[in-house]
């Protein structure tokens, strides 16, 4: 009841005209920047930090929250229309959203994403209000073996469902894990795969890898096939969801927050793991197996709802524990420190107006995001009518700008080109790109958690399975790996197959 009363006070702060204005500015800026490949919400918040020096802290954080949610929607827009994610949380949207766009259903995919973001964000923020103390306690109790088990689950789940071959999926994952090894070993200080370059000692930024594999790789692949495939415009389609689409999307919309919120709240979480797991879950539960890989709308609705709920979960760890679980949360933590505010258990007591105003502004931002972006779905979809040579030339330009902006080093452009050529080769030989990206994102973190667990157990492998949570996760991993063989042995499956043969 105290939380509800405090939330009402927060709405009193968030619904002032000036704060509504800052929320709208944040949503619009976040969407616009998220649309540009490689320039995600984390970079947007970082670039705007100096601009907010003169702002009231509450107004600044309301705008940052709008940028966060708007950036996630903008990232899914380019994922769906151009197969080039604006940020890492939007990677999964490309899997089914882009085939939908190519088949003339780009507006439907964008509408499913927009409504999914709204529902996931509203449910996630409600959970933030109600469950923040409980989730914070659970997050504190999770140890290194549990983190490592979760990451292994993400690796196996993604490589097992993408592409026609598990071998190709694991090969792609190996590429990503190798790229993630580049840099300095955080525990020993040893240089790995740096080739004597000091610039590479910090590793390859995940933005450069994601943009290289997706944006540059896709642009080069399209350029290589323009002569044979032509460059005609792709049809846009109707700008709304019909009853059939709604029937297929409402369950994924509601399942998304169940997966996304807990993963967003735990340290070392974020939106990458839950969106991949949501994609896997929806594919398993779907009754339209033949559409997956060709444009299944559930593959857009579920992960996008999951990503938005994960963003709300991210704020749990940041506000209650001072632990950022994503790049955006890390930048926002720096912004708190800039104003002399330290997030943690006492933040709700010391800065109630700021915290509850920020949480209330999330509801306002969700409504603004839906109202502003849903009517723009057909407008965004018309990007597909731009001649492809000009369109992909623009993508390469913005991709290069985004990569250069990471550290301002010309070497990053060379690395971007190399990774883009790797992305081209992966498309040529049928290797899915997603396992490589998740390998880069989670590989270093998985290595650190594994080594911590082994250090605690004095090198014994039992240290990786010394908790019920880790054992449960590994059981799920074993089930995923064995499922193709188990499915063949199921009597019901055989009966269905025989019935289909008779028909």
From TrEMBL:
Tell me which InterPro entries the record gives: DUF112_TM
Q: Domain of life here?
A: Bacteria
Q: Which keywords does UniProt give here?
A: Membrane, Transmembrane, Transmembrane helix
Question: Which residue windows are transmembrane per the record?
Answer: 20-49, 109-135, 147-163, 170-187, 207-224, 315-336, 356-377, 389-407, 413-442, 463-486
Question: Which Pfam families does the UniProt entry name for this protein?
Answer: TctA (PF01970)
Q: Which residues form the DUF112 domain?
A: 20-437
Its name, as the record gives it, is Tripartite tricarboxylate transporter permease
